[in-house]
Design a protein that fits this description.
mainly alpha
């Protein structure tokens, strides 16, 4: 279940909304991280820790969070334990127009929400880009995907390919080798 959809904090512009959502993500992840061996090999999160960082960036840019509070929250969510558990981050963006079209394609209403408004979406996309630039190097692999001109099937194929490539890279054993001569030379120098 996407944690944001069941948050008891209804104001999506409140830092507490993102704190609750981020902590809920960790609550689901920690049981797998705490056990040395589990029967789970892969966890795929629709909205993971990196999403929380994007929201904190947006809230800070929007003036809803002071710099020191943002820094403290980001510090917690980017601890080494959480970052190392994340092998791949796919940071999706879309133009506000594409997002609005997708949001209302199958709804009976055109009533705008607090987030689903063009100006808000535009500022959020900028915050995602800013978060990727600020925190991307702290994670193993962060890849941007602009879905503005792709349909759902095209995005699904791209995501599947990227996830399988990441999994393959994690599973392939990397073996190094040295020539006997270079090893003897190195040992002989000691």
């Amino acid at each position: 279940t996407e944690r944001a959809s069941v948050s008891p904090v209804t104001d999506k512009r409140s830092p507490f909304f993102n704190m609750w959502t981020g902590c809920s993500i960790l609550t689901g992840l920690i049981p797998y991280l705490s056990e040395p061996v589990t029967d789970v090999d892969v966890v795929i999160a629709d909205r993971g820790v990196f999403d929380t960082l994007c929201w904190f960036t947006w809230l800070q840019d929007d003036g809803a969070m002071p710099d020191d509070e943002t820094r403290d929250m980001v510090g917690f969510f980017t601890t080494k334990r959480f970052r190392q558990a994340t092998d791949l981050v796919l940071a999706f963006t879309a133009s506000p127009e594409a997002s609005m079209e997708r949001e209302y394609a199958h709804l009976l209403t055109r009533k705008r929400g607090s987030i689903m408004a063009p100006t808000v979406l535009e500022s959020y996309v900028k915050s995602i880009e800013k978060a990727v630039d600020a925190f991307g190097a702290d994670f193993k692999d962060v890849q941007r995907i602009d879905t503005s001109h792709q349909n759902q099937n095209e995005v699904a194929v791209q995501v599947t390919e990227r996830v399988l490539t990441s999994m393959r890279e994690e599973l392939v054993e990397k073996v190094g080798s040295l020539s006997r001569h270079s090893l003897e030379a190195a040992v002989g120098e000691q």
